[in-house]
Amino acid sequence: MNPTIVLVHGAFADSASWAPVTRLLLDAGHTVLVPPVFNRSLPGDAAYIRRFVEQIDGPVLLVGHSYGGAVITVAGVAENVVGLVYVSGYALDEGESLGRLQGGFPDSDLAANLVYTPYTLPDGTDGTDVSVKIDAFPAVFAGGVDPATAGVLAVSQRPLSAIAFGEGASAVAWKTKPSWGIVSGADHTINPEVERFGYGRANMREVVEVEGAPHLIMHAFPERVVEVISTAVAEVTA
């Protein structure tokens, strides 16, 4: 039985970030779902995606971009998840946070181009949203993407709550599920070494490096992303 492909977006993006890949997968006859991630906390986002996945009848291939990689790492322990694909993503270990993993390879352009904005939590206290400066977004996040598209994405970001950077992974699905990884060779949001290190540690079945690819590889090189997803689908249904 072919798995349902669930595409999980990351920080500073929403489900539309997957649009070119979604279209290609649908055209190829795959069943695809692209749920929202609220980007409020790693435990909360992972719990939401896990519950979403558990309500799908049949096997699921989870695909996570960027922060979405951290989310699928935790959510992927759901029983019906048969594989994981990391796209320019964080493959965390148990107890490890985004900040801790990225802190080991600090050479990226993201930190200098972040905006911190307060928002009100349900209890009336303040939380902090983190987003990318609009004028820096195309270069930092979407290099090589059509400028008109990058401009729209820049003003429609879904911020990430600052607390998510320090929250450790409570479970690690790649230790029990097969996984695949894509490294964006020209990533200026996550140091590509973060991706290489995480993927190597996870002993992934295949790691594909796309030279010249920006962080938003799904828009710049959607066909390459689909190739890796298709490989994973074939292997988990063989």
TrEMBL record:
What organism does the record attribute this protein to? Amnibacterium kyonggiense
Name of this protein: Pimeloyl-ACP methyl ester carboxylesterase
* Record lineage: Bacteria, Bacillati, Actinomycetota, Actinomycetes, Micrococcales
Question: What domain of life is recorded for the organism?
Answer: Bacteria
The AB hydrolase-1 domain extends over: 5-227
Q: Which InterPro entries match?
A: AB_hydrolase_1, AB_hydrolase_fold, Sec-Metab_Biosynth_Hydrolase
Q: Which GO MF term does the entry hold, naming one?
A: catalytic activity
Q: Which PANTHER family match?
A: AB HYDROLASE-1 DOMAIN-CONTAINING PROTEIN-RELATED (PTHR37017), ESTERASE_LIPASE_THIOESTERASE DOMAIN-CONTAINING PROTEIN (PTHR37017:SF11)
